[in-house]
Amino acid sequence: MKRLIWAVLGIFIVGLIVFFVEFQQKSKRCKGIIVKLDEKAEYPFFNEQDIKDLITLKGVDVIEGMNFSEINLKGLEKRVLKNRLINNCQVFRDLSGNLVVSIVQQRPVGRLISTSDAEQQLNASLGGYLTETGEIVPLSGRFAARTVLVSGEFFAKKQNLTSQKGKQLIDFLKALQQNPFWKAQVAEVIVANDSELTLMPQVGQHQIDFGLPDDFEVKFEKLKIFYKNILPLKGWEKYKRVSVKFRNQIVCE
Protein backbone atom coordinates (compact mmCIF):
# COMPACT_ATOMS: atom_id res chain seq x y z
CA MET A 1 0.00 0.00 0.00
CA LYS A 2 2.84 2.37 0.90
CA ARG A 3 4.54 1.63 -2.43
CA LEU A 4 1.35 2.56 -4.28
CA ILE A 5 1.06 5.83 -2.35
CA TRP A 6 4.70 6.71 -3.06
CA ALA A 7 4.25 5.83 -6.75
CA VAL A 8 1.18 8.05 -7.06
CA LEU A 9 2.95 10.83 -5.18
CA GLY A 10 5.99 10.51 -7.47
CA ILE A 11 3.83 10.77 -10.60
CA PHE A 12 2.08 13.81 -9.14
CA ILE A 13 5.39 15.54 -8.37
CA VAL A 14 6.79 14.82 -11.85
CA GLY A 15 3.60 16.14 -13.44
CA LEU A 16 3.79 19.26 -11.28
CA ILE A 17 7.40 19.87 -12.34
CA VAL A 18 6.54 19.42 -16.03
CA PHE A 19 3.60 21.82 -15.68
CA PHE A 20 5.79 24.38 -13.90
CA VAL A 21 8.54 24.18 -16.55
CA GLU A 22 5.99 24.45 -19.37
CA PHE A 23 4.36 27.43 -17.66
CA GLN A 24 7.73 29.12 -17.27
CA GLN A 25 8.56 28.53 -20.94
CA LYS A 26 5.26 30.00 -22.09
CA SER A 27 5.66 33.00 -19.83
CA LYS A 28 9.09 33.74 -21.32
CA ARG A 29 9.39 36.56 -23.77
CA CYS A 30 10.82 36.08 -27.24
CA LYS A 31 14.42 37.31 -27.18
CA GLY A 32 14.96 37.22 -30.93
CA ILE A 33 14.35 35.43 -34.22
CA ILE A 34 16.83 32.85 -35.50
CA VAL A 35 16.51 31.80 -39.16
CA LYS A 36 17.79 28.44 -40.38
CA LEU A 37 18.08 28.52 -44.16
CA ASP A 38 18.01 25.47 -46.41
CA GLU A 39 21.65 24.28 -46.39
CA LYS A 40 21.00 21.72 -49.15
CA ALA A 41 19.46 24.27 -51.53
CA GLU A 42 21.43 24.64 -54.75
CA TYR A 43 19.98 28.10 -55.39
CA PRO A 44 19.79 30.75 -52.61
CA PHE A 45 16.29 32.14 -53.13
CA PHE A 46 16.24 33.66 -49.61
CA ASN A 47 18.50 35.27 -47.05
CA GLU A 48 17.81 35.61 -43.33
CA GLN A 49 16.21 39.03 -43.66
CA ASP A 50 13.79 37.75 -46.31
CA ILE A 51 12.47 35.12 -43.89
CA LYS A 52 12.28 37.62 -41.02
CA ASP A 53 10.25 39.91 -43.28
CA LEU A 54 7.87 37.03 -44.03
CA ILE A 55 7.48 36.03 -40.38
CA THR A 56 6.92 39.62 -39.15
CA LEU A 57 5.08 40.99 -42.22
CA LYS A 58 8.07 43.29 -42.81
CA GLY A 59 8.08 44.51 -39.21
CA VAL A 60 4.35 45.14 -38.87
CA ASP A 61 3.90 42.17 -36.52
CA VAL A 62 6.51 42.76 -33.78
CA ILE A 63 7.29 39.31 -32.35
CA GLU A 64 10.42 40.06 -30.35
CA GLY A 65 9.43 40.84 -26.76
CA MET A 66 6.10 38.99 -26.94
CA ASN A 67 5.25 36.20 -24.49
CA PHE A 68 5.45 32.81 -26.17
CA SER A 69 1.96 32.12 -24.83
CA GLU A 70 0.75 34.86 -27.20
CA ILE A 71 2.62 33.57 -30.27
CA ASN A 72 0.76 31.24 -32.65
CA LEU A 73 3.57 29.04 -33.97
CA LYS A 74 1.39 27.15 -36.47
CA GLY A 75 -0.03 30.43 -37.70
CA LEU A 76 3.48 31.74 -38.35
CA GLU A 77 4.34 28.58 -40.31
CA LYS A 78 1.30 29.11 -42.53
CA ARG A 79 2.30 32.74 -43.00
CA VAL A 80 5.77 31.76 -44.28
CA LEU A 81 4.37 29.00 -46.51
CA LYS A 82 2.31 31.55 -48.42
CA ASN A 83 5.54 32.15 -50.32
CA ARG A 84 5.33 29.29 -52.83
CA LEU A 85 9.10 29.09 -53.24
CA ILE A 86 9.16 27.57 -49.74
CA ASN A 87 8.31 23.88 -49.57
CA ASN A 88 8.37 23.36 -45.80
CA CYS A 89 8.59 25.54 -42.68
CA GLN A 90 8.92 24.76 -38.98
CA VAL A 91 8.64 27.42 -36.27
CA PHE A 92 9.54 26.63 -32.65
CA ARG A 93 11.18 28.14 -29.58
CA ASP A 94 14.59 27.09 -28.29
CA LEU A 95 15.73 26.81 -24.66
CA SER A 96 17.38 30.24 -24.82
CA GLY A 97 14.08 31.97 -25.52
CA ASN A 98 14.52 32.54 -29.26
CA LEU A 99 11.96 31.93 -31.97
CA VAL A 100 13.53 29.58 -34.55
CA VAL A 101 12.30 29.56 -38.16
CA SER A 102 13.59 26.66 -40.27
CA ILE A 103 12.74 26.46 -43.99
CA VAL A 104 13.17 24.07 -46.91
CA GLN A 105 13.09 25.64 -50.38
CA GLN A 106 11.41 24.29 -53.47
CA ARG A 107 13.76 22.40 -55.81
CA PRO A 108 13.40 23.72 -59.40
CA VAL A 109 14.01 21.28 -62.26
CA GLY A 110 12.94 23.53 -65.13
CA ARG A 111 11.94 27.08 -65.98
CA LEU A 112 8.59 27.34 -67.72
CA ILE A 113 8.45 29.95 -70.48
CA SER A 114 5.79 31.03 -72.96
CA THR A 115 6.65 31.02 -76.64
CA SER A 116 3.54 32.78 -77.91
CA ASP A 117 0.79 35.15 -76.80
CA ALA A 118 -1.71 32.29 -77.16
CA GLU A 119 0.18 30.16 -74.63
CA GLN A 120 0.40 33.09 -72.23
CA GLN A 121 -3.38 33.49 -72.36
CA LEU A 122 -3.98 29.77 -71.82
CA ASN A 123 -1.92 29.53 -68.65
CA ALA A 124 -1.26 32.40 -66.26
CA SER A 125 1.40 30.30 -64.52
CA LEU A 126 3.77 30.36 -67.50
CA GLY A 127 6.98 32.07 -66.50
CA GLY A 128 7.63 30.12 -63.28
CA TYR A 129 9.68 27.17 -62.10
CA LEU A 130 8.70 23.52 -62.32
CA THR A 131 9.63 21.84 -59.03
CA GLU A 132 10.56 18.31 -58.00
CA THR A 133 7.13 17.95 -56.39
CA GLY A 134 5.32 18.85 -59.63
CA GLU A 135 4.30 22.37 -58.64
CA ILE A 136 4.51 25.51 -60.77
CA VAL A 137 5.87 28.32 -58.59
CA PRO A 138 6.83 31.95 -59.28
CA LEU A 139 10.34 33.02 -60.19
CA SER A 140 12.63 34.37 -57.49
CA GLY A 141 13.44 38.05 -57.47
CA ARG A 142 16.74 37.33 -55.71
CA PHE A 143 18.31 34.51 -57.71
CA ALA A 144 17.78 32.91 -61.13
CA ALA A 145 18.08 29.13 -60.98
CA ARG A 146 20.18 27.65 -63.78
CA THR A 147 17.75 25.08 -65.13
CA VAL A 148 16.62 23.98 -68.57
CA LEU A 149 13.92 26.05 -70.29
CA VAL A 150 10.60 24.24 -70.76
CA SER A 151 7.70 25.20 -73.04
CA GLY A 152 4.90 23.74 -75.15
CA GLU A 153 1.18 23.06 -75.50
CA PHE A 154 1.30 20.43 -72.75
CA PHE A 155 1.19 23.18 -70.11
CA ALA A 156 -1.97 24.90 -71.38
CA LYS A 157 -4.39 25.41 -68.47
CA LYS A 158 -2.24 23.32 -66.10
CA GLN A 159 -1.66 24.60 -62.58
CA ASN A 160 0.56 21.68 -61.51
CA LEU A 161 2.15 18.47 -62.83
CA THR A 162 0.82 15.92 -60.35
CA SER A 163 -0.86 13.70 -62.98
CA GLN A 164 0.84 10.51 -64.17
CA LYS A 165 2.08 12.22 -67.35
CA GLY A 166 3.22 15.20 -65.31
CA LYS A 167 5.18 12.96 -62.92
CA GLN A 168 6.89 11.26 -65.87
CA LEU A 169 7.97 14.65 -67.18
CA ILE A 170 9.27 15.73 -63.75
CA ASP A 171 11.29 12.48 -63.47
CA PHE A 172 12.81 13.22 -66.89
CA LEU A 173 13.69 16.81 -65.91
CA LYS A 174 15.24 15.61 -62.64
CA ALA A 175 17.42 13.14 -64.55
CA LEU A 176 18.43 15.92 -66.96
CA GLN A 177 19.23 18.28 -64.07
CA GLN A 178 21.37 15.68 -62.28
CA ASN A 179 23.46 14.77 -65.34
CA PRO A 180 26.21 17.40 -65.89
CA PHE A 181 26.64 16.55 -69.60
CA TRP A 182 22.97 16.76 -70.59
CA LYS A 183 22.33 19.72 -68.30
CA ALA A 184 25.00 21.62 -70.23
CA GLN A 185 23.96 20.30 -73.65
CA VAL A 186 20.16 20.77 -73.63
CA ALA A 187 18.94 24.38 -73.80
CA GLU A 188 15.18 23.82 -74.04
CA VAL A 189 12.62 21.05 -73.75
CA ILE A 190 9.44 21.51 -75.80
CA VAL A 191 6.54 19.35 -74.60
CA ALA A 192 3.75 18.64 -77.10
CA ASN A 193 0.14 18.14 -76.08
CA ASP A 194 0.61 14.34 -76.28
CA SER A 195 3.64 14.56 -73.90
CA GLU A 196 6.24 13.90 -76.61
CA LEU A 197 9.47 15.84 -76.14
CA THR A 198 11.62 17.84 -78.53
CA LEU A 199 15.04 18.81 -77.19
CA MET A 200 16.83 21.92 -78.47
CA PRO A 201 20.61 21.66 -77.91
CA GLN A 202 22.97 24.47 -76.94
CA VAL A 203 25.30 23.65 -79.86
CA GLY A 204 24.27 22.76 -83.41
CA GLN A 205 21.30 23.48 -85.67
CA HIS A 206 19.51 20.16 -85.16
CA GLN A 207 16.55 19.27 -82.98
CA ILE A 208 16.16 16.01 -81.07
CA ASP A 209 12.89 14.07 -81.25
CA PHE A 210 12.98 12.31 -77.89
CA GLY A 211 9.47 10.85 -77.86
CA LEU A 212 7.67 10.27 -74.57
CA PRO A 213 9.61 10.90 -71.34
CA ASP A 214 10.08 7.18 -70.68
CA ASP A 215 13.12 4.89 -70.96
CA PHE A 216 15.12 8.11 -70.92
CA GLU A 217 18.33 6.48 -69.72
CA VAL A 218 18.31 4.24 -72.81
CA LYS A 219 17.52 7.20 -75.07
CA PHE A 220 20.30 9.28 -73.53
CA GLU A 221 22.75 6.46 -74.26
CA LYS A 222 21.67 6.47 -77.91
CA LEU A 223 22.18 10.23 -78.03
CA LYS A 224 25.69 9.79 -76.66
CA ILE A 225 26.46 7.52 -79.61
CA PHE A 226 25.22 10.27 -81.93
CA TYR A 227 27.36 12.96 -80.28
CA LYS A 228 30.51 10.87 -79.85
CA ASN A 229 30.54 8.74 -83.02
CA ILE A 230 28.35 10.32 -85.69
CA LEU A 231 28.74 14.10 -85.35
CA PRO A 232 32.57 14.07 -85.27
CA LEU A 233 32.54 12.22 -88.62
CA LYS A 234 29.66 14.00 -90.36
CA GLY A 235 29.99 17.49 -88.88
CA TRP A 236 27.72 19.60 -86.68
CA GLU A 237 25.83 21.13 -89.62
CA LYS A 238 25.05 17.83 -91.38
CA TYR A 239 21.72 17.00 -89.72
CA LYS A 240 18.62 19.04 -88.90
CA ARG A 241 16.74 16.36 -87.00
CA VAL A 242 17.72 13.40 -84.82
CA SER A 243 15.20 10.92 -83.44
CA VAL A 244 15.71 8.44 -80.60
CA LYS A 245 12.01 7.85 -79.96
CA PHE A 246 11.99 4.37 -81.53
CA ARG A 247 13.49 1.35 -79.81
CA ASN A 248 16.98 0.32 -80.97
CA GLN A 249 17.12 3.09 -83.60
CA ILE A 250 18.82 6.43 -84.16
CA VAL A 251 17.28 8.29 -87.11
CA CYS A 252 19.31 11.20 -88.52
CA GLU A 253 17.95 13.48 -91.24
From TrEMBL:
The chain crosses the membrane at residues 6-23. Keywords: Membrane, Transmembrane, Transmembrane helix. This is Cell division protein FtsQ. It comes from Runella aurantiaca.
